[in-house]
Amino acid sequence: MNFLYNILIFKATLLLQILSIFSKKLKLFFDGRKQTFSKIDVLKDENVIWFHAASLGEFEQARPIIEELKKNCNQYKILVTFFSPSGYEIRKNYNLADVICYLPLDSRSNARKFVEIVNPKFAIFVKYEFWPNLLNELKLNEIPTILVSGILREKQIFFKYYGGFMRESLKAFNHFFVQDRNSKGLLSSINFENVTIAGDTRFDRVSKILEQDNSLDFITEFKNNQHTIVAGSTWQEDEELLVNYINNEASEEEKFIIAPHNIKPEAILALQKSINKKTILYSAKADENLSEYTVFIIDTIGILTKIYAAADVAYVGGGLKTGLHNILEPATFGIPVVIGNNYDKFKEAVDLVNLKGCISICNQEEFSSILMKLKSDENYRKLTGSINQKYIQENLGATKIIMNYLKTQL
């Protein structure tokens, strides 16, 4: 199986390189990787702790640990690698990491060269990134390796009769810090007992958001003390529901802030043109009386978290089709969160839907109905939001558990 895996990696690399001619995202994927080995070269002979995150969400899980290491173990250099351009492009200038780059594709030669150059004192993988050749090199070089905020599912290859070579790669991990009992039970079923249920470090991350100044003057001016719905990380299917509600059902006392996932000018223009209420873009807000507008489209990145602080209700995009985005950021502010109906792969969403702090919808009727109820029933709105905030507070502590372990190992 190892032989077949390496052939598959080789063929996939060739195919994706061809496809990158026609895809901007794939071009970033390959062009970025051309710089990986030159970037990590500066880490030769340094004491390095290596974090690997697939994308932006996983990086947010690594972030609280990185911050604690910088405070308590600042003799180490921090390397952060990403698999996906959507994570790398947003966090490539993160100031607490000494080097940020793409993870090389998992060929034997790449894995050997990467581990030889970096020679990390510790490797930390986030959530569910498992690359057999890299893990094998870490094991061969006796480099301590852990998984943090891990979550495993029965459908994964490790738990299939044909997944022996992937199960073997898990032996590289000295310890697994997982989010839930199910993950621990699955690992136990394949004879891994070096497991701790620590929870999700993102709870620690989002809880700290409340300690910072989240006010934005332009948002305060736009909101003008009116009921405001913030729709974050929306995709086209989310925006169709929003636009229909804004155009046909919203009251005069409601305001909307939309922060699309896709901020390409043509997509932003199409969204703006589809709305028949007075709409302003973030990029065009200068010298405007923002309080006169009903819809504010955020055509930039990096400020959504602070915008959630001004929301009365949050809608988080991706749950209708493409993959749900972060619901913990709005939840930490103690506001109701509305999402699509495809959320079963996200533990926090499953938990909060069951607790009734997060409301799942699947069509226009349900979407409009819940927005109207959340506006008209203040008690319901406050109760729903308080469930979310309480859930965040009850799930803190994963970072402390992991740091206690790291302090004994470093």
Notes on the structure:
There is one protein chain. By secondary structure, the chain is of the alpha/beta class. Helices cover 46% and strands 16% of the residues. The protein has 19 helices and 14 strands. It has helices at 2-19, 24-33, 36-40, 56-72, 85-91, 108-118, 132-140, 164-169, 181-189, 202-209, 217-223, 236-248, 265-274, 304-308, 328-331, 347-355, 364-376, 378-394, 398-409, and strands at residues 48-53, 77-82, 99-102, 122-126, 145-150, 175-178, 195-197, 227-234, 254-260, 279-281, 295-297, 313-316, 337-339, 358-360. The chain has a 7-stranded parallel β-sheet with strand order 3-2-1-4-5-6-7, sandwiched between helices. Strands 10-11-9-8-12-13-14 form a 7-stranded parallel β-sheet. Helix 16 (347-355) links the parallel strand 13 (337-339) and strand 14. Helix 6 (108-118) crosses helix 7 (132-140). The chain is globular and about 65 Å long. The two termini are 35 Å apart.
Short description:
With 410 residues, the protein is α/β, with parallel strands linked by helices.
Helix content: 40-55%
Unreliable spans are: none
Globally, the shape reads globular
Rounded mean pLDDT is 94
Main sheet: strand order: 3-2-1-4-5-6-7
Looking at how many chains there are and whether they match, the oligomeric state comes to single chain
Would you report the number of β strands? 14
**Ends distance:** 35 Å
